[in-house]
Amino acid sequence: MDPILAGDLARFPDLLTAVRDQAVKVLASLDDRPVALPGEPPSPETLPQQGAGLDGALDRFAERWQDRMSGSAGPRYLGFVTGGATPAAVAGDWLTSALDQNLSSGAGSAAPDLERETVRWLRDLFGLPGTFSGSFVTGATMSNFVGLALGRQWYGEQYGADAAEDGLRNVPPLRVLSGTPHSSIVKATSMLGVGRNQVRVLPTLPGREAVDLAALEAALAEGPAIVVANAGTVNTVDFDDLRAIADLRQRYPFWLHVDGAFGLFAALSREHAPLLDGLDEADSVCADLHKWLNVPYDAAVQFTRRPDLQVAVFRNAAAYLGDPGENPDFMHLTPENSRRFRALPAWFALTAYGANGHREIVERNTAAARRLGELLGTVPGVRLLAPVRMNVVCFAIEGDVPAALRAVTATGRTFLTPTVYDGQPGIRAAFSNWRTTVQDAEEIFETLRHTL
Predict the structure, then answer these.
(1) CATH 3.50.50.60 fits 101-340, yes or no
(2) In the sheet where 254-259 sits, what is the strand order?
């Protein structure tokens, strides 16, 4: 064994303590660490020929890179829809690396069984019935990809074709219908060979991002399609009428995929849970966990009522892998053969804090978003582009949005991202971090008030 590697093995417990101490320093600095860093990276170095050992690598990371990492895990990062990592989730993630389980196969480890248990817990958390199965994937993009892949397989069946085996030859082009499709839906159609131009963006209700049901019904009258319904749009957290969309299947055949990347957590909110009425009628559902579940990147779940189609699409044929059988290994259900034990941080989070603890996070974040919206409404030249429906504040300013956001980022106190809503350039503030409080929202407002 390489002598440096052997030395690290001999000192492994002490070295992990050193890593722990360094992580503690990082976490303790989150309140003061710049929320985002637009600065230059350090000068590149050449590949080391002689290793420095783990302690040397820790020193080099601290010297060259650590202070250039953002404070995105902290309470004032409002870009995209990004959670942090709760203490239990961090512990689970550390153990994930230490255990280093191979989730491709269930042979020799109970790790796949823990994943199945975690998926069942999440299914219950979101109010899905027991007819749904699921599996962990990397994020909302891959979860949406899986859902649309199953929809593509279903679509082929409507014309007597097997899309997984033969592609979609000799069938009409597959249409993907949605009022406000997330960019990952469009990306998925490209990866699936359906084509970005087959995404048909339908009219929405006046002043809303929810699809106009009359327009959807008119499009469905043209033939089978995939319908992507939203449970929480990224700009305004708008919800399609899932029950009304599902009822259209009494007259028209379509695959119903619900993109609920972060909006599924409305199930935990006493006020917002009714928005998910009809979710149980979906064929596939996307849920992203490194958003509101606050587990480390990357983690998401895809749910479906048609695991048979899932095996048809993703089964991996090789002699050493075996037949999928009645209880398929996850390599027959997801795009990845090599799968990280992503379920463990989520299992720890759910075990540690339960449904009630995560409900408190959702309701506190919602209260913080509303408070920021109220305060922004008092600033001349700032205009809310939509009501603060849940955890996202979408607003416009009179000045140049990119310049304003650069100025906000330069303060180091918060980070927001740009958007365009109904043709109007705007700014999004998305609350999903477990540390964020209403007081943080007020501090963020003071930064914005003096910067915008």
Answers:
(1) no
(2) 133-137, 300-304, 284-288, 254-259, 225-230, 176-178, 199-201
Please report, to the nearest 10 degrees, the dihedral formed by the alpha carbons of residues 274, 280, 283, 288 taken in order.
60
Angle between helices 438-451 and 401-411 (to 10 degrees): 120
Of 122, 178, 81, 126, the C-alpha closest to 419 is 81
Q: How far is 101 from 115, CA to CA, in rounded Å?
A: 12
Are the C-beta atoms of residues 362 and 269 closer than 8 Å to each other? Answer: yes
Give span(s): CATH 3.90.1150.170, the chain.
30-42+52-86+355-452
Please tell me whether the overall predicted TM-score, pTM, comes out greater than 0.85 for this model: yes
Residue 23 in contact with residue 62, Cβ under 8 Å?
no
How many secondary structure helices (H) and strands (E) does the chain include?
Answer: 15, 11
Q: Which amino acid is at 88?
A: A
Range(s) within the chain of domains with CATH label 3.40.640.10: 101-340
Residue 346 and residue 419: Cα distance in Å, rounded? Answer: 30
Of 272, 186, 286, nearest in space to 237 by CA: 272
- In degrees, rounded to 5, the angle at the alpha carbon of residue 228 between the alpha carbons of residues 227 and 230 is 140
Q: Quick: pLDDT tens for 152-185.
A: 999 999 999 999 999 998 999 999 999 999 999 9
30-42+52-86+355-452 CATH pick, 3.30.70.1050, 3.90.1310.10, 2.30.40.10, 3.90.1150.170: 3.90.1150.170
Q: What is the biggest distance separating any 2 CA atoms in the chain, rounded to whole angstroms?
A: 71
Tokens of 426: 């705007």
| Residues ≥6 apart with Cβ < 8 Å to 325 | none
Q: In sequence order, which residues have a C-beta less than 8 Å from that of residue 23 and are 6 or more positions away?
A: none
| CA–CA separation, 125 and 385 (whole Å) | 31
CA–CA dist 262, 276 (Å, integer): 12
Instruction: Say which residue the tokens 């895990």 belong to.
Output: 73
Angular region, 380: left φ>0, alpha ψ -120 to 50, beta rest: beta
Q: Distance between CA atoms of 334 and 202, rounded to whole angstroms? A: 30
What's the chain's Rg over C-alpha atoms? 23
Per residue in 184-241, pLDDT tens? Answer: 999 999 999 999 999 999 999 999 999 999 999 999 999 999 999 999 999 999 999 9
In 162-302, where does DSSP find H-type helix?
Answer: 163-166, 183-191, 213-220, 242-247, 289-292
Q: Which helix or strand (DSSP H or E) is residue 2 part of?
A: none
